[in-house]
Amino acid sequence: MRIISGLYKSRKIIAPKNLPVRPTTDMAKESLFNILNNLFYFDAISVLDLFAGTGNISYEFASRGTQQITSVDQDFGCIKFINQTAEKYNMPITTIKSDVFLFLEKCTQQAHVVFADPPYHFTEAQFAKIPELVFQNTLLLEDGLLIIEHSKHTNLSDLKGFSYSKTYGGNMFSFFEAH
Q1: How far apart are CA 134 and CA 113, in angstroms?
Q2: Disulfide check for 45: which of 38, 112, 116, 123 has CB 3.0–4.6 Å away?
Q3: What domain range includes position 170?
Q4: What is the pLDDT averaged over residues 62-81?
């Protein structure tokens, strides 16, 4: 994976092969950050990265100046890798090893951007639980966004707070806002 912009632009980060992940493609990540760049000042926001995997999205936010990043994943190997990478590059990333749904049920930490990249094979009910818990616990700050990455074959437009979606290859980002 490669960091697209910011302090660590063009830096390649090689994740261990044994991690149970599907990193966001560079094309999809670049498109997502082009959208976010028009909505936020990266150095003035906080981010919650759910199902963080390799930390790909967290690193991109850190490279662009975000100082408050929390990465949540249940896999010990993923958390260990994110911690090692964050330490190596002095990135302000806090990790939490937890099942994301258990974390969301107890979370009180608000963020400007909540990014979730759950497994693409999730059921509709599992996908629906993410915005449900985010909105139920008021985890988005004012004018904040929940972004869920999923397969283009999954339709999340009926879920609470859905605003719009963008497709990049086989990936889709659905954007949600608190109303």
Answers
A1: 11
A2: 112
A3: 26-176
A4: 97
Spatial separation of the C-alpha atoms in residues 17 and 141, rounded to whole Å: 36
Burial (CB count <10 Å: 0-12, 13-18, 19+), residue 17: exposed
User: How many angstroms separate the CA atoms of 78 and 10, rounded?
Assistant: 22
Main-chain dihedrals φ then ψ at residue 39, nearest 5 degrees: -110, -25
* Nearest to 153, CA basis, from 121, 175, 177: 121
- Residue 110 domain-assigned (yes or no): yes
How many separate domains does the chain show?
Answer: 1
**Tokens at 141, concatenated:** 């700050």
> Residue 34 and residue 149: Cα distance in Å, rounded?
15
Answer whether 147's CB lies under 8 Å from 173's CB. Answer: yes
Residue 15's pLDDT band, with cuts at 50, 70 and 90, is: confident
CATH of the domain at 62: 3.40.50.150
Task: Report the chain's terminal Cα–Cα distance, integer Å.
Answer: 35
Q: Using one digit for the tens of pLDDT, what is the confidence trace for 96-124?
A: 999 999 999 999 999 999 999 999 899 99
